[in-house]
Design a protein that fits this description.
- By secondary structure, the chain is an all-alpha fold.
- It has one domain.
- The chain is elongated.
- The longest helix is centred in the last third of the chain and has 38 residues.
- 81% of the residues lie in helices and 0% in strands.
- It contains four helices and no strands.
- This is Transporter.
């Protein structure tokens, strides 16, 4: 159930396909987070609900992204989408928490009243997630496409 072309995919093409899948993943996660925020905000305005919503909107996309990567990689027909999603998962989980930490640091360091404070925080957090997703998924695609190329070269040389 995985796409394996007979010829290897070039590294730039694999990285471009992975970047497209990562951007689509970030947009889908951002839209899901906005829907969840609207549903929670419409239901309860208490501070506890807002804290819970913040935790939900921060951590659920980080945990769902590696699961969402596989079908999107299949959609763009990248070779070995399952392996690429597995290679993507660990660096993404680590770097997304680093990115969220940097985002919180920047968000609290910018003075109130600046142009940055007028932007929806979910949009800036989504941008950080998009950058991390593109970097990690493109790197994972580079690794798996090179493995595929090496296996293809061995198979061609041997027979």
């Amino acid at each position: 159930m995985t796409h394996r072309p007979h010829t290897p995919v070039s590294a730039p093409r694999a990285m471009l396909l992975a970047a497209a899948a990562a951007l689509a993943m970030s947009v889908l996660l951002l839209l899901a987070a906005w829907v969840a925020r609207a549903a929670i905000g419409a239901h309860d305005d208490s501070p506890d609900a807002n804290i819970g919503a913040g935790m939900l909107l921060t951590f659920v996309p980080v945990l769902v992204a590696p699961l969402l990567a596989w079908p999107l990689l299949r959609l763009v027909r990248l070779p070995y989408p399952g392996l690429t999603a597995l290679v993507f998962a660990v660096p993404y989980l680590v770097l997304s928490f680093v990115g969220l930490t940097v985002w919180v640091w920047i968000d609290t360091a910018i003075p109130v009243g600046s142009a940055y404070t007028e932007i929806d925080p979910m949009l800036t957090m989504g941008a950080v997630d998009a950058v991390v997703s593109v970097l990690c998924l493109s790197g994972a695609a580079l690794v798996t496409s090179r493995l595929h190329a090496a296996g293809h070269a061995r198979q061609s040389a041997g027979g």
